[in-house]
Amino acid sequence: MRSTIGTLFKVTTFGESHGGGVGVVIDGCPPRLALSSADLQTDLDRRRPGQSRIVTQRSEDDTAEVLSGVFDGYTTGTPIAVLVRNKDARPAAYEHMRDLYRPSHADYTYDAKYGFRNWTGGGRASARETVGRVAAGAVARKLLATVAGVEVLAWVLSVGEIEASVDADNVSKEEVESTPTRCPDLKAADSMIEAIKTARGNGDSLGGVVECVCRGIPAGLGEPVFGKLEAVLASAMLSIPATKGFEIGSGFTGTRLTGRTHNDPFVPDGSGGISTSTNHSGGVQGGISNGADIIFRVAFKPTSTIASPQKTVNREGKETTLAARGRHDPCVLPRAVPIVEAMALLVLADLWLLQRAVDVLPHLENLP
Question: Residue 81 in 3-state DSSP?
Fold first, then answer.
């Protein structure tokens, strides 16, 4: 089972939803980076359950324990291990699902692949696994902000049929965090809250879209063939539980434009450099960052586990009915925001280090 992402900034997550804890090992973080558990806790608090009335009411404080790799407030260059203990695990709540397959969940596919599965909350298939990703993303955030001034910010763009109007060029973290929906369009946010409450009351769930902007990205990150920046980002985003789609820049909307209107003209940036006057490319051209903001969107399906009775089968293939119990998000979007940010940060930190490895080679002159 692959639980590792990255080449130089390598991240391995561990743990299960209702086990002793979850966490991450980060290998490849450079030494002498100022880092404290508080740097991790900020993002973990944004991801944790029970933070508002529109998310799961599982009670976890998600306190990060940094076990290694940090000494006297600085990274040592050795692997950083972070553990978050599960405090409110209730495996007995899943006893009735031991031999049943939850519709649209990973229960059947895990059995099909391994012939065995952890039925207490889905085990590694649970979104609780993303605690480790968010902790690692916080380390990547500190690294990229320190060495390159990079900022990564995501927000909820839509929930169900409700679409927000957001200016990606100017939206701030304060605006995003001003509402439990993490949608900076406050009018749309109010409608989203009511829609999520209604879905929960009806024993149902809602999906939506998270949008993300990465600012201060230097030109040159990514590879021109199989390691294209947008391809690596897509792979990272689609590894998040409940994701069903990824698009960057103009995305599918760009298919309705012509080349003349879609191309991004190059212009002087006013400081001796080069920029583009538009950004239909979403900051990536030919698989490589061009220095513009990277803007992308991730689609999340409605939460699979709902309180309404659903037809399913057991492990013997006999038909039955399942009404899930336990504590589940009626909409994953608000808590998905820091996870999307984390995965973008992990990709960018890895690509930044890879580019630094290229840059240390002497620049040869008079090449043909």
Answer: strand
Q: Which residues pair with 215 in a beta bridge?
A: 151
Distance, CA of 81 to CA of 102 (rounded, Å) = 33
Q: Are 321 and 306 in contact (CB under 8 A)?
A: no
pLDDT, position 363: 54
Query: What does the pLDDT read at residue 94?
Result: 73
* 365: confidence class by pLDDT, cuts 50, 70, 90: low
d(CA 26, CA 343): 13
Cα–Cα distances in angstroms (integers) from residue 239 to residues 18, 55, 280, in the given order: 21, 21, 25
Q: Are 31 and 146 in contact (CB under 8 A)?
A: no
137-180 pLDDT, tens digit per residue, is: 999 999 999 999 999 999 999 999 999 999 999 999 999 999 99
CA distance 293 to 219: 10
Residues 6+ apart with CB under 8 A from 345: 137, 140, 141, 144, 152
Nearest of 25, 132, 142 to residue 85 by alpha carbon: 132
Share of the chain residues as helix, strand and coil, in percent rounded to the nearest 5? 30, 25, 45
Q: What sign has the CA pseudo-torsion 13, 15, 17, 21?
A: negative
As given in the structure block, the two tokens for residue 116 are 């065995």
Which residues are within 8 A (CB) of 291 and not within 5 positions of it... i.e. 6 or more apart?
217, 218, 219, 273, 274, 275, 283
Q: Are 291 and 214 in contact (CB under 8 A)?
A: no
d(CA 221, CA 356): 10
Q: What is the pLDDT of residues 51-106, one digit of tens each?
A: 667 776 565 788 999 999 999 999 999 999 999 999 876 666 677 778 889 999 89
